[in-house]
């Protein structure tokens, strides 16, 4: 028997992090871009006002965007407001994206609003609010009906000894194919020599992404590769302190702080090595994107191995900057066109293509709606 339902499944996706250039928001937008409105109507709740792209993607499914800013400051009011949305929109499935048992707030609101299916989605392998997470685990497990994780590691973190479905963070794989023309153009825009060796990091400036450590490692690298350059893409609370650190260490001229950028495929094509020294990760989309661009990648040992789609990824310790610098120095250029094509094929085969995964997600929704949880 088919899992298809007669009418579109009414889904409410909830972002428990601020909408912006971050992994969870990008993941949700990727899925929304592939939702079939005949099969799924998807509403979206954000903590802050999303951009026009998000509004358009939600609208094309027949859904609406709701902004509820008080999740952390006024949780009881937030739960009441969210429950009201669930009730008024006759939501069948609440799909809440986060990384801890604080998702219990969304699950409680979903239950109170009458949603039969309450679906937490784990996007990381740890969280910042460990005490609150521990206190809420009991309520969290009692109110969840179906668990999803972006990787096995993320699933074991939030759903230990409990069933969960792994749904890989997915991307539009061909979008990140290496382009020699984009490489040349972007290097020219950034004032980089065409033959210079360039390292690239993409991520929000926060504790998890560990950019301060990366600057220390890059300073050590410059002893071995004095002509190397480092591009840092992203923004966040720690950007200014990192800029000051680069200045104090005398490497400011070799490091470019590029802020938030839209042209990620071109930046990936322009680089020679991608670096990710994170303290922890669920399954970083940027690492999948970098591999699809044919880039060698040097990443922290704390990053889940599931994200390595090829032998282009090397894992390095982050206890000492010199060890990470040595790993960066050892990474050399590849035959980008061939490496990119092979990585894209591998990403599709391994389940990282957004079209395939959106189909899987819609089937999960339809099956859950039919079963009622």
Overall radius of gyration? 21 Å
What is the ordering of alpha helices and beta strands? EHEHEHEHEHEHEHEHEHEHEHEEHHH
Largest sheet: 7 strands, parallel
Instruction: From the 3D structure, determine the CATH topology of the largest domain.
Output: Rossmann fold
CATH superfamily of the largest domain: Glycogen Phosphorylase B
Q: Please, what is the average pLDDT?
A: 95
- DSSP summary: helix tally: 14
Q: What is the correct CATH architecture of the largest domain?
A: 3-Layer(aba) Sandwich
Number of separate structural domains: 2
Number of strands: 13
Oligomer: single chain
End-to-end separation: 18 Å
Query: What's the shape?
Result: globular
Q: What percentage of the residues does DSSP assign to strands (E)?
A: 15-25%
Helix residue percentage: 40-55%
Supply the CATH class of the largest domain.
Answer: Alpha Beta
- Helix/strand-derived class? alpha/beta
Give the uncertain stretches in residue-range form.
Answer: none
| Sequence of strands across the biggest β-sheet | 3-2-1-4-5-6-7
What does this structure look like?
The protein has 373 residues and is α/β, with parallel strands linked by helices. It folds into 2 domains: 181 residues, Glycogen Phosphorylase B (Rossmann fold, 3-Layer(aba) Sandwich), CATH 3.40.50; 177 residues, Rossmann fold (3-Layer(aba) Sandwich), CATH 3.40.50. 42% of the residues lie in helices and 16% in strands. The protein contains 14 helices and 13 strands. It has a 7-stranded parallel β-sheet, with helices on both faces. It has a 6-stranded parallel β-sheet with strand order 10-9-8-11-12-13, sandwiched between helices. The longest helix is centred in the C-terminal third of the chain and has 18 residues. The mean pLDDT is 95.
């Amino acid at each position: 028997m088919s899992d298809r339902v007669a009418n579109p499944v009414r889904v409410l996706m909830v972002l428990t992090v601020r909408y912006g250039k971050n992994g969870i928001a990008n993941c949700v937008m990727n899925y929304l871009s592939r939702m079939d409105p005949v099969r799924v109507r998807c509403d979206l709740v954000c903590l802050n006002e999303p951009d026009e792209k998000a509004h358009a993607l939600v609208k094309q499914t027949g859904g609406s965007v709701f902004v509820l800013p008080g999740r952390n400051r006024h949780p009881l009011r937030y739960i009441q407001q969210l429950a009201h949305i669930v009730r008024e929109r006759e939501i069948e499935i609440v799909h809440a994206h986060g990384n801890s048992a604080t998702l219990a707030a969304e699950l409680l609101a979903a239950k109170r609003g009458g949603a039969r299916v309450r679906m937490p989605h784990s996007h990381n392998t740890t969280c910042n609010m460990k005490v609150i997470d521990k206190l809420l685990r009991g309520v969290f497990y009692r109110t969840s009906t179906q668990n999803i994780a972006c990787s096995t590691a993320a699933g074991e973190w939030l759903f230990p000894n409990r069933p969960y479905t792994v749904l890989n963070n997915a991307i539009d794989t061909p979008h990140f194919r290496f382009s020699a023309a984009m490489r040349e153009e972007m290097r020219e825009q950034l004032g980089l020599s065409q033959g210079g060796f360039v390292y690239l990091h993409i991520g929000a400036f926060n504790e998890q992404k560990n950019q301060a450590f990366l600057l220390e490692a890059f300073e050590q690298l410059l002893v071995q590769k004095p002509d190397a350059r480092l591009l840092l893409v992203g923004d966040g609370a720690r950007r200014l302190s990192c800029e000051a650190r680069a200045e104090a260490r005398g490497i400011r001229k070799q490091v470019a702080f590029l802020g938030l950028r839209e042209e990620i495929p071109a930046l990936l094509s322009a680089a020679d090595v991608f670096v990710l020294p994170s303290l922890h990760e669920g399954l970083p989309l940027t690492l999948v994107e970098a591999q699809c661009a044919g880039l060698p990648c040097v990443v922290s040992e704390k990053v889940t191995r599931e994200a390595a789609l090829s032998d282009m990824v090397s894992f390095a310790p982050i206890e000492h900057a010199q060890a990470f610098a040595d790993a960066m120095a050892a990474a050399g250029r590849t035959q980008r066109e061939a490496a990119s094509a092979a990585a894209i094929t591998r990403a599709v085969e391994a389940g990282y293509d957004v079209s395939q995964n959106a189909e899987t997600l819609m089937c999960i929704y339809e099956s859950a709606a039919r079963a009622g949880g």
